Amino acid sequence: MSEMSLELRVLGTAAGGGFPQWNCGCSNCARARLGELPARLQDSVAVTANASDWFLLNASPDVTRQVEATRPLWPRVRRGSPIRGFVLTNGDIDHVLGLLLLRENHPLAVYCTAEVRAGLLENPMLRTLMRFEGQLVWRSLPIGDEIELLGPADERSGIRARAFAAPGKPPLHFPGAAWAPGDNVGIELASEQGGRLVYASGTAAVGPIVGDLERASVLLLDGTFWSETELIERELGARSAREMAHVPISGRDGSLARCEGLPAGRKLFTHINNTNPILDPRSPERAELVTRGWDVAEDGMRLLI
Ligand code: MLT
Ligand code: MN
Ligand code: ZN
Fold first, then answer.
1. Is ligand 1 within 6 A of the CB of residue 172?
2. Pocket test for ligand 1, best of 19, 92, 185, 269 (most atoms within 8 A of CB)
């Protein structure tokens, strides 16, 4: 396996709820229902180093649709899957629910922090993934150390991953819980050719992780909200972007400003909320981010690093 590049498939680029979101009638969602804007599945990325063993970054509630939409993830035998496991960046429903949807007797390795694992294990439905020895193989995801992702029977994947703590919050179903660094991480994947994907689809701020973002040749960053008060202005919510642990794209401390000068050759926003004006390719907000060297990740996008 010399000089293998990493192949990435972007499986979904929407924030929790997807695009359109079932109970939202905002103008973006209305236009998506009419086919005027492309619909998007929830945030997830698939990766392989050998074109046959795949790991998914996050387990979206859309995972079964994402598999069907992605030919390399289709079964190659009468019963089986090239998906060896998952890396979870936090315990939010939009990043873990997919695990429960893959309960059909297929062994999976799940890499996550102790905090995320403890939160998941509070849900008795997880037992549907633990009906036989080796069905779900928990693997720790250390912060700061590079590891090779291994399949459920320790099969080598050739994928090297490093997690880093990103400012976030505990999942909504643990209200009031104290925040710990392991609650929310970003992931760096390195290829033997020296390329690096940095995936941070949820972060409350850029400053504390700018050293991690600087390492990226391809960057996939939290693009949930364009502005700090997006939901409040539209009377669709009471909380600001940062109160929801998502750095806004615009503004003095927004990601566009704080990421100025990052060396990544490709800078893409993902985990985009249905209210975000960048979902419209003709919006002035989209034009502004493109002018500043960014783009919006698209479902189905293939990236090589
Ligand atoms: C988030 O990204 O803030 C979460 O997906 C919120 C949620 O769990 O609905
Ligand atoms: Mn989310
Ligand atoms: Zn909407």
1. yes
2. 92
Burial 115-138 (b: 16+ CB within 10 A, else e): bbbebbeeeeebeebeeeeeebbe
pLDDT exceeds cutoff 90 at 192: no
Tell me the pLDDT tens digit for each residue of 94-136.
999 999 999 999 999 999 999 999 999 999 999 999 999 999 9
- What does the pLDDT look like over 135-166, one tens digit per residue? 999 999 999 999 999 999 999 999 999 999 99
Q: Which single residue is written with the structure tokens 């992780």?
A: 209
Check if the beta carbon of residue 3 is closer than 8 Å to that of residue 193.
yes
> CB-side exposure of 224: number of CA atoms within 13 Å?
24
Tokens for 138, please give them: 């928990």
Straight-line distance from the first to the last Cα atom of the chain, in angstroms, rounded to the nearest whole number: 15
Atom index in ligand 1 nearest the CA of residue 94 equals 5
Q: Give the integer Cα–Cα distance in Å for 67 and 18.
A: 16
C-beta of residue 200 within 8 angstroms of C-beta of residue 213? yes
Does the predicted TM-score (pTM) go above 0.90? Answer: yes
